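Example 251, ligand S-adenosylmethionine.
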Amino acid sequence: MLFEWALSLVNPAPLRLRRLGYVRQSGRLHARSRRCRAAWAPHLTRARGVIIAAAEATAGRGSVVVLGSGLLDDVPLKALADLFDRVSLVDAVHPWPARLTARRHRNVALVTAEISAGLGDPGLAEVCASADLIVSANLLSQLPIVPIEAHEARGREAPPQLGTQIVETHLAALDRLASGTARVCLVTDIVQRVEDRAGRVTDSLDLMFGVALPPPVQVWDWEIAPFGEIGRCHRLIHQIHAYPDWRAARA
Ligand SMILES: C[S@@+](CC[C@H](N)C(=O)[O-])C[C@H]1O[C@@H](n2cnc3c(N)ncnc32)[C@H](O)[C@@H]1O
């Protein structure tokens, strides 16, 4: 808790995004990622592998955009910076460890943008339009969280379709980008299972809010909260779907 609070104070972000809760969300993720480092490692390795394969299969090597770059835990930044002339890292919050890592590469730029309503921000739209590869890196299921929590914080229920709309908006943006010359790579968690120590599923949550995705090219489990993180007797598992080439998956 203390670590999360300290991160909320030191991580830079525009006041509007701080007020909306993105810095708090980033701090929460950061603290959990460090507590659950060992449990998360297999997932992060697989996600990095998908992104590297997508990068190597991309014909143009001008620029790559990573949406939801966050802590860069699942982003193979060195490989991308070696393969492409320019790397743009896009997130509502770029935490300090990611900023320091990015500074080691002369061709890496940070773009701070809130993208739950799409990729229409003028600066971002330009960066995406000229990209050879666009990666959506474990971002999609996170997009509805802050907007829904903002309603709840005001004591109101979020509009019932809000989560669905946000997921559909992001997928539509990826569709548009994939209909041009860019390759689009999507890695996302789609469902959360709560499991007990006997391996029984005691609850599950559709992280896509009812939006169906095409059959994935790779599927794996991410133990996002091992036993002890949310309680002694339960753990949280997220199922990941990976699409190294979104255009091919949609065809
Ligand atoms: C699970 S993390 C992704 C992991 C990240 N790729 C990494 O390697 O650390 C989700 C990221 O999405 C970002 N995010 C959530 N909602 C966002 C929004 N509306 N606009 C931009 N970024 C957002 C968060 O700040 C966070 O960094």
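Summary: The radius of gyration is 18 Å.
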